[in-house]
Amino acid sequence: MPEKPIRVLHVDDQRLWRSTVSDYLTLFGDYEITSAESGEQALDLLRTNPFDIIISDYQMPEMNGIEFLHLVRKRGTSTPFIFLSGIRQEDIEGDAKESGADFYVMKTGDPSVVFSVLSEKIHQAIARYTTVQAVMNTQMEDSVPSSFL
Predict the structure, then answer these.
(1) How many CA within 13 A on the CB side of residue 77?
(2) Element (H, E) at 45
(3) Which residues 6+ apart lie within 8 Å of 40 measured at CB?
């Protein structure tokens, strides 16, 4: 039975980057990509659609990527989150990790390298998330008295 495509929510205010990510990423795996041009639009999509991973630009008008991530986490959504940004500053990477981002990938450089790295990070983040969820489920099952099972 074939695996299902990875459902990606990609948030970037630049149309060219939304198109580029969609075009390139599909060359590196089976991805189903939904694009949003703002954090607000992405939050609306998250209300009604399940995603396996969220990829967001950092620098966007109205709501930057960190603000978007804070709102995602505040809603209780633990979906893996990757920043894909052209800004390379140590404090931004630190803020991204402290805010609950799984990875920070630079969108500058050779596109084949950028999207190969991004695809690898997507798989790593989803694998880690799946493992954590499995451990949590096992712990919950172990804490329930057998008379309730």
Answers:
(1) 22
(2) helix 39-48
(3) 62, 63
Distance CA 37, CA 139 (A): 39
Q: Which residues pair with 54 in a beta bridge?
A: 9, 81
pLDDT for 2 equals 52
Antiparallel, parallel or unpaired: β 81-85 and 53-56: parallel
Distances (CA, A) of 109 to 63, 114, 116, 117, 129: 26, 7, 12, 11, 28
Euclidean distance between CA atoms 30 and 101, whole angstroms: 22
93 pLDDT more than 90: no
| pTM summary value | 0.88
Residue 66: band (very low, low, confident or very high) from pLDDT cuts 50, 70, 90: very high
Is pLDDT above 60 for 57?
Answer: yes
Torsion, Cα of 93, 50, 68, 10 (10° steps): 60
Please name every residue paired with 32 in a beta bridge, in sequence order, or none if there are none.
7
Topology, domain 6-148: Rossmann fold (3.40.50)
